[in-house]
Amino acid sequence: MEEPEKRRGKGSLTKALIGVAVLLVIAVPVLAFFAGRESAASDDGSNARSNAAESEYDFKVLNEMLEILKEDYAKQDNLDDQTLYEAAIQGMLEVLNDSGTYYVDPTTYRVDTSPTLRGAFDGIGATISQQAGEIVIVRPIKDTPAEKAGLQAGDAILQVDGQSTDGWTVEKAVLTIRGPKGSEVKLLIRHQDGEEKEYSITRDSVTVESVSTIAPGGALRDANNNIVDGIGYIYISEFTPRTAQEFEAALREVTSQGVQGLILDVRNNLGGSLNATISSTDLLLDSGTILIQRDASGKETSYVAKQGQLANGLPIVLLQNRFSASASEIVAAALQENNRATVIGETSFGKGTVNTPKELSDGGVVFVTIAQWLTPNGALIDKVGVRPDIEILPTDEDIDARRDVQLFRAIEVLRGQVKAP
User: Fold this and answer.
1) Is the dihedral of CA 115, 121, 126, 132 positive or negative?
2) How is the chain split into domains, by residue range?
């Protein structure tokens, strides 16, 4: 593994986000981050509740505490049953320290999340993340209400419809901001320069193509701004159920041009459908394990590639960054550990779990981690991420000049592996 070439300076979050993404033409809906979701089991949860009732701990004490607060607490204005109720639930789940296990309240859960993994949804059209305890916009999607309203990468979302986002999880923010086409949402935004401004944005249908062969800037160029011939480029923004078909078509298009190397870009790809991820990765492998899934009992299931890759053995470089998560990490690890690709960029996010929704009697839902993903060599992805073979961290100067140094290094590596035309 090579040493890092450059370290990122102490520039703003906007710079850090723009440095690797500003020229890319496709963004991803953030709910893809929660990849690997299983459908809710038929069990209505009564067995679990029965077992909970038999615990040595009597949870009726919580109700006793609530009654004492209602009777004796001096600051009665601070008491709200729903707020205390949700806080008790969140407190219980937070001790698990597991991003894949979380509670969604009934009001928020009424928003149907399933369209996201089909590549279309109703909302404002912006990918978000959590940075330093705040909900931050990673990037507005092109030609969406968010972009048209003037939202920018690095903007912090302080309030949604008057509700403070302090302490919100990413999924709560997504489900609250999303809503039916034509409805309005008000966001209090703090820009990177410190200015706070309220935006009223009308939601619309947002469609996202998950695969593109268009390189940043419209053409693949090296560090000297020369157009690069003989190297193909494919960007995957997320893994929807149609991604495998889109990726296969893109592979056929690129390879038909007689390229001698391929750049696969999954930067800012937050994940998506597990089946699509496996099928897409299989297109680049003739054999070998794609991933291992370990359930709660310790049972492991291996997903193995089938003979018949479409990349014709072309040298591959995979680009990833710190926002590459979940499904995109599966692809990176599978190609890296099967010696099929050189991974360049930053250590990925580290989201490697499968979670399933369990509906609750209050109309809410708790998502529960039921399995973990391991790399082909048996390494955990969750909270660890995939380390690149060549670490490239853009400097402030690179970001200001909009130099995509990760892409430039990918071109250099492939040029050293391919035969001269």
Assistant:
1) negative
2) 13-38+208-417, 120-207
With left for phi above 0 and alpha for psi between -120 and 50, is residue 66 left, alpha or beta?
A: alpha
Q: Per CATH, which fold does 120-207 belong to?
A: Pdz3 Domain (2.30.42)
Catalytic residue, candidates 129, 171, 351, 391: 351
Q: Which pLDDT tens digit goes with each residue over 167-186?
A: 888 878 888 898 889 999 99
Strand segments (E) across 288-392: 289-295, 300-304, 316-320, 342-345, 353-359, 365-374, 390-391
Q: Report pLDDT for 162.
A: 94
Q: Is 337 a catalytic residue?
A: yes
> Within 13 A of 297's CA, how many CA atoms are on the CB side?
3
Q: Is the dihedral of CA 357, 359, 360, 365 positive or negative?
A: positive
Reading the block at residue 62, the tokens are 């919580």
**CATH topology assigned to domain 13-38+208-417:** 2-enoyl-CoA Hydratase; Chain A, domain 1 (3.90.226)
Q: Which of 238, 337, 346, 391 is catalytic?
A: 337
- State both tokens at 303: 């997903």
Separation in Å, CA 107 to CA 82, 197, 246: 12, 26, 35
Helix (H, G, I), strand (E, B) or coil at 76: helix
pLDDT at residue 219, rounded to an integer: 83
**Measured distance CA(350)–CA(322) in Å, rounded:** 9
> Strands 102-104, 300-304: parallel, antiparallel or unpaired by DSSP?
unpaired
Largest CA distance in the chain: 83
Active site residue 326: yes
User: What are the backbone angles phi and psi of residue 154, rounded to the nearest 5°?
Assistant: 95, -10
Under 8 Å CB-to-CB from 347, ≥6 apart: which residues? 322, 385, 386, 387, 388, 391
Please provide the distance, in angstroms rounded to a whole number, between the alpha carbons at the two ends of the chain.
29
- Is 328 a residue of the active site? no
Residues 241-252 as b/e (b if ≥16 CB within 10 A, e otherwise) read ebbbebbeebbe
* Token pair recorded at residue 290: 């794609």
- Residue 405 belongs to what H/E stretch? helix 405-417
The string of pLDDT tens digits covering residues 328-353 is 999 999 999 999 999 999 999 998 88
**Measured between alpha carbons, how far is 248 from 246 in angstroms, rounded to an integer?**
5
Active-site residue (options: 99, 279, 280, 326): 326
Low-confidence ranges of the chain (pLDDT < 70): 1-58, 110-120, 217, 418-421
388 with 344: CB under 8 angstroms?
yes
